[in-house]
Amino acid sequence: MCIHDEMAADVAGIFSEFGKEVVLAGRTLPALISEPQETLELGAGGFTASGNFTVKLLRNNLPAIPQIGHTLTYAGETFRIVRVSNRPPHPLVTLTVEPVE
After folding, report:
1. pLDDT more than 70, % of the chain
2. Beta partners for residue 73, in sequence order
3. What's 30's DSSP letter?
4. pTM (two decimals)
5. Largest CA distance in the chain
């Protein structure tokens, strides 16, 4: 068993114990969710608040790697993917998401 297979097995155990459900492309998947972060950004007309957080998914659970602009649902709210971290052969794909306004 290679190190990446061992990591995937360990992470699967973590997901089964601490994972939260997200819905992505019509499929319910276990995920690790980070604490949401809120920032202020200077834009036309003043400062606007924006927030984001990361969603970590097991690569083996994904039929395809999600793309920027796709949406997912977590806790009854819809979020847009704004960043994708995909480093094969690592077992996790990390998405940075923001609320859909």
Report:
1. 85
2. 23, 78
3. E
4. 0.80
5. 56
